[in-house]
Design brief:
Blueprint (H helix, E strand, L loop, with lengths): L11 H19 L3 H19 L14
Helix pairs in contact: 1-2
């Protein structure tokens, strides 16, 4: 995932949380676990936008997506 987690406004603990999530994403990709990788990728995006202060849930989850 092309994401720069080393933003000046992020606290060290926030950078660590994003790093852990990105590592989990890479682990799932390497294991061929596509559904889990997609779920973690979505979570990374949500957490990243929340840390940046510009989160808006523009993609509501429907039952068909679960």
């Amino acid at each position: 995932m092309p994401l720069d987690i080393h933003q000046p406004e992020f606290l060290p603990v926030e950078i660590e949380a994003l790093r852990e999530l990105l590592e989990k994403h890479e682990q799932y990709v390497a294991q061929g676990r596509d559904l889990e990788a997609r779920g973690v990728a979505r979570c990374v995006g949500i957490v990243y936008r929340c840390f940046k202060g510009d989160f808006q849930d523009t993609q509501p989850t429907g039952w068909s997506e679960l």
